[in-house]
Prior knowledge:
By secondary structure, the chain is of the alpha/beta class. It folds into 2 domains: 8-192, Hexapeptide repeat proteins (UDP N-Acetylglucosamine Acyltransferase, domain 1, 3 Solenoid), CATH 2.160.10.10; 196-247, no CATH class. Helix content is 15%, strand content 27%. It is built from 4 helices and 27 strands. It has helices at residues 193-198, 203-216, 223-230, 237-247, and strands at 8-9, 14-15, 20-21, 26-28, 32-33, 38-39, 44-46, 48-51, 56-57, 62-65, 79-82, 87-88, 93-95, 103-106, 111-112, 117-118, 123-124, 129-130, 135-136, 141-142, 147-148, 153-154, 159-160, 165-166, 171-172, 180-183, 187-191.
Amino acid sequence: MPRHPTAIISNDxxxxxxxxxxxxxxxxxPVKLSPGVKIGxxxxxxxxxxxxxxxxxxxxxxIGDDPQDLTFDPSTPSGTRIGPNNAIREHVTIHRGSKPGSxxxxxxHNFLMTGVHLAHDVLLGDHNILANNVLLAGHIHVGNRAxxxxxxxxxxxxxxxxxxMVQGNAAISQDVPPYCIAHGQNQLAxxxxxxLRRAGFDPETRLAIKQLFLLCFRPGIPLSKSLEQATQRxxxxxxxxxxxxxAHPSKKGTLSR
Length: 257
């Protein structure tokens, strides 16, 4: 049955005809569900939340609820935007933005496994995989095609770059640069070479990224000094993307080896 008779659906909600809503789910407020969306049982979708085509929400998930912030005013007009073709599994929590007009945003083709938490104002790109119980605090920006291992926790306001990989149970409170692997407590292991190859980066580009990485992360040499040297050389676009991330980190700074 596309909409289970036990589901509670607000009159303010805008729901496409072929949306599936499971038993005992609550669709509360001006929620917009696009064609092909599937909502698992016992879920709660609330507030100014929009979910794109063919996205699946697993059982017991809560999408669009208030931020876990002691200073948050529940009357704040903010929302949640989830793009198309995402697989969001059971017991995932995604909270709305924390400031007037702000949004927590998820792109497309992401896979969020059981128990993932995205706090307020998180920006998640496309084709990312977040394994079970990954925890993203507020205002984190994640690029595209990152893999975050199960149980990894991330401090607020940091950035996680394209094709980054983070070990399970890691504790990260600084930026993870694009193409890099992080582990443990704020440790940078090296480059995600296999990920670069699988993403279609040609050998010359991979070599340039490796050269830039080795130039910037030299033992005993401050990153700032290495960046001065790196900026004086031309780099292909993909390597320049890494250089830009290192040169303009978040206020938390960048992981080091």
